[in-house]
Amino acid sequence: MYNLWSVDLWSVICLRRFGKVFTKFSLGSMDSLARALLPYRDVIGNVAGMLTIGQFLSGCFTCNKIRLKGSSEGFSALQFVFGCGLTILQLKYSQMLRSAPLIRTSSYALAICLVYSACFLFYTPSGKRNDFWKLVMRTTLLAGGALLYAGFENPGLVKDRFGLLVTILTLSYIGLPLLKLREVIRNKSSEGLPLPVILASTGASVLWLLYGIILHNYFIIVQKVIALGLCAVQLSLFVIYPAPAATAAAVRAQHKKPKGE
């Protein structure tokens, strides 16, 4: 089972391997690309931010399902609560980088996750809120510990080390949709995967990758390269396991019905 509370060894291994690749990467080529993109830095950052916010807004569909059901039973608060802790850390790291687009995006994402968490709690029966509060406590300890560490660490080291921590947690969060991989393979259908969200994630990852190159920030670069790999895996599922043809035919038939029916 995918465990967000243990160290993601796979992410650490990937980060180390990609780190070696990027150390061998031609600095001259990256500098040339960064100089070419520099005039468009704000545009790239703002568009990437909008796509990222679009990803977070996908939680509205889950909240609406909870509202229609009248209860949060059968749903997980992990995406929302852990999202709050992650966006707090991302906001802190964005402030370290002094990047306005990153600060703005992290602030909006945090506000959205707080609303989702409040909605989830509202529809959780009073007798079953212990799991929710345990998750909140774990997230608070994780985020609080990281922020405490950032406050006491050597200023010359904190940016890199804190960036590594945020990168590992972000990759864990991005990998959450892969929890449905077993279900997709078992049903041989990608119908349950949110294609618009995955496409938005892919576009945002490409733009944040370019933004990271402009900033010469290897944590952002490595993070988004791995994120693109995860997106590629998810997109490939739509080719390998397309939605049932019967579903598509039913939709077309529905559109062809006379208006009077």
TrEMBL record:
Q: Which positions, given as ranges, span the membrane?
A: 43-63, 75-93, 105-123, 135-152, 164-181, 193-214, 226-251
Keyword annotations of the record:
Membrane, Repeat, Sugar transport, Transmembrane, Transmembrane helix, Transport
* Record localization: Cell membrane; Endomembrane system
Just give the chief location class. membrane
Entries under InterPro entries matching the protein: SWEET (IPR047664), SWEET_rpt (IPR004316)
How does it sit in the bilayer?
Multi-pass membrane protein
Per its UniProt record, what Gene3D superfamilies does this chain match? 1.20.1280.290
Sequence similarity: Belongs to the SWEET sugar transporter family.
Q: What does this protein do?
A: Mediates sugar transport across membranes.
Q: What is this protein called?
A: Sugar transporter SWEET
